[in-house]
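Re: the 382-residue chain
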Amino acid sequence: MDNRGTSKSRIEWGFILTLLVVISFAFALIIEPFFGAIVWAVVVAVLFRPVYDRLLGAFPGRTNLVTVTTLVLILLLVIVPAILLGFAMVQEATGIYQRIQAGDIDFDAVFGRFERSLPHWMQVQLAAYGYGDFASIRAEVEQYVSAILEFLLGQILSVGQGAFQFMLGLGVMLYLTFFLLRDGPALNDRIGEMIPLEESKRHILMERFLAVIRATIKGSLVIAVIQGTLGGLVFWALDIRGALLWGVVMGVSSLIPAIGTGFIWVPVALYLLVTGDVTQGVILILCGVFVISMVDNVVRPILVGRDTRMPDYVVLITTLGGLQLFGINGIIIGPLVAALFIAAFAIREGIEAWQGDTCATSVGMLLEDEDAHDHDHDHDHD
């Protein structure tokens, strides 16, 4: 009789599990067209949560008013400037691409001047390493620049061509952001209740998840915006053509640790030096090293803290993997999944997530400290 009951129970649980998997898969298919909107709604909600909390502190109990006010700020500070930046980028990228196709930007002349400016010993060294054929290098660089411009134009124009889909996605993002801001704590508690762990461990797990989400978003997007803006301003101040476009490219490249903004400004600085614009080249190098690149070393610890920073190689691999799987949204999704993966296994193994090259306080110690605190608190009451 017991065996029959156990068998029946297993069948019921198997049915429920299968049903949950099928329904979850169907739900994922339904929301798949708005996956990008959902991701960016979470990103915006996390970034503007401190603003919402401050406004709510100033107007307690007025949750709907505060949420709408925060959405208006998001529109004015993020969405409208992003749309205007997109239009400006289209014009600038289109102009540069058309000049390349029309031959107005003569790569032969540029590389000829570059080659003639190189010292003889450097030409010998380049030839020894197989880089003496500047014609092939010129062709590769021209192809590379054209590919970047085509990609940027394709991404931006695809948004313009699908204007209705873009507006629909924007509406879904703002609508979801409204509820994430207003009901964020309640949603967090609801999700936490579904986790089959002890309350203390569940609390640490949720706090850790939220910490790595905030750290990943701040450490990726905010730093990219700051570095891209600084890079664009430096290029503009030095009267380098396409400052806006290359500023955006620097912002995107800063999301990939092994590449960074130096992927753009270093070749430009070298070109300025060897072609005789020594002052501009030196200024660009100084700004690149002590202004643009220092943002990552100075601002990131302030925004993120050292507690939740992942190793650069993990960020690199997951960013590239995310780009392959999810397109531009993968820049955020890849490192975020990696951070949650590390946090989950840290809880599972009884240690906290990595901190760069160090390993932090164990979760077991945190639990012991929490229990000791509770014990002391009870003792005080006694």
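The chain has 16 helices and two strands.
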